[in-house]
Amino acid sequence: MKPTLRTYELLFSLFGNVNVPYEEGNVLSHVDVSKRISIIEMDMFNNGIQHSFVSMKNLIRAFGSEGMIEEMLRYLNIAENILWNINPYQKSDLYSIALHALVDAKETHRAVMIFKIMRSCNLPTDISIYNTMIECCKWLSCFKSASALLSLMLRDGFNPTVVTFTPLLKEHELYNTAIEALLVLSMRMISEDVSILSEKRIAFEDLILSEEPDAELRIIRAFQAGEEFLATALLNLRWCATMGATISWSPEESLWARRLASSYDANKRPYINPSDVPKSW
């Protein structure tokens, strides 16, 4: 059977990586990847088949995943030259893959350069791209830039997620604050009623503080069929306890919760009854 374009798209996807995702790429795996891709490309061209958007996308992802940054950027440049008719969303997709790889490789300045090119070309962005660039700011230790990206993200209509806030907390190195916040969130996931939390405390503490090797598995098995949120909350609490955090079953007593509440109260504007406002105002 004669191979088609789809054949090569799949080949690049299946055989473009050696170590990933089980191990990071190294010198030996890089050599192997280069040989594989060279053989597939040669066979592709011998059959008179040219690259498509999907084949180039799979190639760029393959090189990026292996940490072969120079090869990835070279193929990104090739893609720009031969796929001149792709739409802006497809082009943005290629850049997004490159951004992820550059940030993973801590090639922060190159990632910034790629992002600036995207902005200058008015290419569409998405929440994944913004999260990647905020992660990039973590390695640059530049909270101001991360805040600017967050502002752009909100302006473009994207709501921050847990993935967004995690690197923001890591730029400030607020690890204790992050654990406090996770503890409060997990308690709220179990119940917002303090009396219910007190009732569940005895049963749940055994699971959270258990030293049995299968404790996590017991938690997952105990809460299935619509109660996955309880399993998630208990696993979070167990991991926090492992990190040395004290488990408090009264979330409102958390220092983080108190600071948040006081900050909120301080920023609240007092209500002014319109009828009390002097006419001279």
Give an overview in words.
With 281 residues, the chain is mainly alpha-helical. It folds into 2 domains: 5-171, Serine Threonine Protein Phosphatase 5, Tetratricopeptide repeat (Alpha Horseshoe); 175-264, no CATH class. Helix content is 68%, strand content 0%. The chain is built from 14 helices and no strands. α7 (127-140) runs parallel beside α9 (162-171) and α10 runs antiparallel to α13. The radius of gyration is 25 Å and the shape is elongated. The model is unreliable at 276-281 (pLDDT under 50).
Task: Give a quick account of the main beta sheet: strands, pairing sense, barrel closure.
Answer: none
The residue-averaged pLDDT reads 83
Helix proportion: 55-70%
CATH topology of the largest domain: Serine Threonine Protein Phosphatase 5, Tetratricopeptide repeat
Count every beta strand, where a strand is a DSSP E run of 2 or more residues.
0
When the domains are counted, the total is 2
Topology:
Blueprint: H1 5-15, H2 27-46, H3 53-65, H4 69-82, H5 88-104, H6 108-120, H7 127-140, H8 143-155, H9 162-171, H10 175-190, H11 194-208, H12 215-222, H13 228-242, H14 255-267
Summary tags:
mainly alpha; 14 helices; about 280 residues; Serine Threonine Protein Phosphatase 5, Tetratricopeptide repeat; elongated; 2 domains; single chain
A few lines on this structure:
With 281 residues, the chain is mostly helical. It has helices at 5-15, 27-46, 53-65, 69-82, 88-104, 108-120, 127-140, 143-155, 162-171, 175-190, 194-208, 215-222, 228-242, 255-267. The protein starts with a helix and ends in a 14-residue tail after the last helix.
